[in-house]
Design a protein that fits this description.
flat, five-stranded mixed β-sheet, nine-stranded mixed β-sheet, 8 helices, 4 domains, 38% strand, 39 strands
């Protein structure tokens, strides 16, 4: 008999087994942190990515949902920053883009609002319904829920003006109850108390009083609730079905930048994590403009080639193309659209190309690169494809805080008053001797106008000559690239009218009023008006004034109404014009009465 069958050896093996079993039982089930990445409906316009992050020490689980409504980027961009987080204690489930299709469309919900599909009944009628079923299962796994949004205006518990009142949502933490009593038990969830604790931590770090958060109790289940639609929301479902604290977090769509929306969301999320005793190991947050480095492309199933961001592809009619990889400074939220083929997301799909097209690369709903694809009927000699590196395909323009690639013949939409700088052309091989890039209607060097306009800061409201615009209307301008007098590229800049987004005024010591163009402000001669802030669709900040009866008010300045309206007829409304330089952005009406 060999030694494996010896009774003493068998006793030794059993003894060792129980020692190992004891070690396994003594070690905590999560001695080491763990991450899971789940992908549903991959490479489609409905791709759903779920990130489960487990801490080194066990604790509660917080579910973050962003992008359930696709035109609210503050929510999905802030959630995205937590997908790479490591935790010392507790767990996160992160769904950065719950409704990727609506994000690609930049729409609240092309097929209906997904946040109105969380009924207690399960539906399987649409892709949105299928995603909701997955989100419901994730809610069931969680101890807390934060649903991240951007809302209109600014929530305030009392009416101040039409953009700051109890029916607005921006800058609020929302719950369906003040206190929720779990049916059949003595347990209560003090939602209002929890939200106010978070707000008390966050608001001291927000300087502008207009941007401070408030608690918004929608009283969803009450018969007289003004927000009965919330009964089909994710937070109401999580609270009433699974009895977990659930909150909506809303930054305002009126905040002046995406960065500020994301920063405010992060402040609130971090405060909730502290409240729930979920401890991060490191944040690793960054928010940069998306940049394409290269694509990996396979033609007719052959060995993949690398196509850089400044190159184009030439095919023979009927060639099959498959893009298998997007190399960018982002990993998530990327999609690829081969125009006139497939759907909104054509990543890793095969298409037979029969006509000229372009590969559009997007981060969420923002297009940030384009690779032209040209089709020829010439017979194939050797390889069926070439990467075109010898022509001028793009103009690189710096504007509104970003660098953009403008394709041949493409129109770049800006706002009159925006600044731009022509950086260069792409690809590099097109930068031959004698290349000039001329912005028609702009003169960079008035003493020696060579027609070369790269490198100049161009103010579109003051530096352009209207007579050189197309049809002389001052709206559409050409940029012509030429070599030796021969045109090799044409690009277009379209200037849209500037407009007032909002105006914040303070009357006496009352809370700030938020006004839009055409609004009426009732004042008396004794009132003192202070201009707080101005927001417009022009990217460049500063230079705003309010002109009233020949008087100018700049942000931070104040005057009495009697001084401002001296010499005018009190029986008639007066106009306050909001200007940026010589540009009229909007007007508000001043109506005099006996007292405020």
């Amino acid at each position: 008999m060999d030694h494996d069958g010896h009774p003493a050896f068998r006793h030794f093996v059993v003894f060792q087994f129980f020692i190992l079993l004891g070690i396994v039982l003594l070690v905590p089930s999560r001695a080491f942190p763990k991450k899971e990445h789940l992908v549903y409906f991959p490479n489609s316009a409905y791709e759903l990515n779920v990130y489960k992050i487990y801490g080194k020490k066990p604790g509660k689980t917080l579910l973050l949902i962003g992008g359930i409504q696709g035109n609210e980027p503050g929510g999905f961009l802030s959630a995205d920053l937590y997908a790479d987080m490591s935790l010392q204690k507790g767990n996160l489930i992160v769904v950065p883009r719950a409704n990727f299709y609506s994000i690609l469309m930049n729409h609240r919900g092309p097929h209906g609002d997904m946040n109105r599909k969380f009924t207690h009944e399960d539906m399987q009628e649409s892709m949105e319904d299928r995603i909701v079923q997955i989100l419901k299962k994730l809610i069931e796994e969680s101890d807390y829920l934060l649903n991240l949004h951007d809302g209109s205006g600014y929530y305030n518990p009392r009416y101040i003006d039409k953009w700051r009142n109890p029916m607005r949502f921006g800058q609020s933490i929302i719950a369906d109850y003040e206190i929720y009593r779990i049916p059949g038990t003595d347990r209560v969830i003090k939602l209002g108390q929890m939200a106010r604790k978070v707000i008390s931590e966050v608001n001291p770090h927000i300087q502008n009083p207009l941007y401070k958060f408030h608690f918004n109790n929608t009283r969803t289940a009450d018969p007289d609730s003004p927000h009965k639609e919330q009964r089909k929301s994710a937070t109401f479902y999580a609270l009433t079905k699974h009895h977990i604290p659930a909150f909506g977090v809303e930054t305002s769509k009126f905040l002046p930048s995406i960065d500020l929306k994301v920063r405010h969301h992060n402040m609130v999320i971090n405060a909730f994590m502290r409240l729930f005793d979920i401890v991060p190991e490191y944040p690793g947050f960054a928010l940069e403009p998306p940049v394409l480095k290269y694509l990996v492309v396979s033609i007719n199933g052959k060995t993949p080639i690398v196509v850089n961001r400044d190159e184009s592809i030439q095919l023979h009619r009927g060639d099959s193309i498959n893009v298998s990889h997007i190399e960018s400074n982002y990993e998530r939220g990327l999609s690829l659209d081969i125009l006139n083929y497939g759907d909104l997301n054509d990543f890793r799909k095969d298409f037979a190309i029969t006509r000229d097209t372009a590969i559009i690369i997007r981060k969420d709903n923002q297009k940030f690169a384009e690779i032209p694809v040209r089709v020829t009927d010439r017979p194939s000699i050797g390889s069926t494809t070439t990467v075109n590196r010898g022509r001028l395909d793009y103009l690189v323009i710096e504007t509104r805080g970003y660098r953009v690639l403008l394709r041949q013949g493409e129109i770049l939409d800006l706002v009159e008053g925006d600044h731009l700088r022509i950086i260069d052309v792409y690809p590099e091989h097109a930068r031959g001797p004698g290349l000039k890039v001329n912005f028609k209607g702009f003169v960079g060097n008035k003493r020696n106008n060579t027609g070369e306009d790269r490198g100049y800061d161009i103010n579109t409201s003051t530096d352009l000559m209207r007579r050189y615009s197309l049809k002389r209307r001052g709206r559409l301008y050409e940029i012509i690239a030429s070599i030796g007098g021969r045109s090799v590229g044409r690009f277009l800049i379209r200037l849209n009218p500037p407009r007032l987004e909002y105006l914040a005024l303070k009357v006496n010591d009352r809370p700030s009023l938020l006004l839009r163009s055409g609004d009426t402000l009732r004042v008396s001669e004794q009132d003192r008006i202070r201009l707080e802030t101005v927001g417009s669709n022009i990217h460049a900040k500063g230079g705003y004034v309010m002109r009233i009866n020949g008087h100018l008010l700049r942000p931070g300045e104040s005057r009495t109404v009697g001084v401002l309206l001296a010499g005018t007829d009190p029986r008639h409304d007066q106009e306050a014009m909001i200007m940026k330089g010589s540009l009229l952005l909007g007007k508000i009406h001043l109506k005099l009465h006996g007292g405020l």
